[in-house]
């Protein structure tokens, strides 16, 4: 059974704020680049997150935004250029769902310290600066796809 999700339409500023997070920028950096107050950027991000299936995490917002084509999908990279161990690969869909390391414990059946270590290693392997950037890089290397994100939403 295939689940489809309707494309989400974000207002221009909402889209700009979400896209601004894609490269690992902080919300403060995004606000500065857009020449708006950080509080204003926060407001746009909250509005976008509501439209993006009510997610609360920035990484999850990016994952849903890519899957629903609410923002421009990043350029794909050669999948042969990255070889993630299973422990790191297993974290990607959970990060895309916005789960914290503590929330991942029951699903992965590992200690929070081990999950955090694997998360740091994943970030390093993908050359990502934060969890939202992990989503972008995982998308580029096709570790994360629209089908995987949509399956999490169902």
Summarize this, please?
The chain has 10 helices and no strands.
Overview of this structure, please?
The protein is mainly α. It has helices spanning 12-21, 27-34, 38-51, 58-67, 86-89, 91-96, 101-108, 112-125, 131-140, 146-153. The radius of gyration is 15 Å and the shape is globular. The model has no long low-confidence stretch (mean pLDDT 95).
Residue stretches low in confidence (pLDDT < 50, at least 5 long) are none
**Class from helix and strand fractions:** mainly alpha
SSE order:
HHHHHHHHHH
| Beta-strand content bin | under 5%
Q: Characterize the overall form.
A: globular
Radius of gyration: 15 Å
Q: How much helix, percentage-wise, in residues?
A: 55-70%
Q: What is the overall number of helices?
A: 10
The termini sit apart by: 11 Å
Number of strands: 0
Main sheet specs: none
Mean pLDDT: 95
Which properties best describe this structure?
10 helices
Write the layout of secondary structure elements.
Layout (H helix, E strand, L loop, with lengths): L11 H10 L5 H8 L3 H14 L6 H10 L18 H4 L1 H6 L4 H8 L3 H14 L5 H10 L5 H8 L1
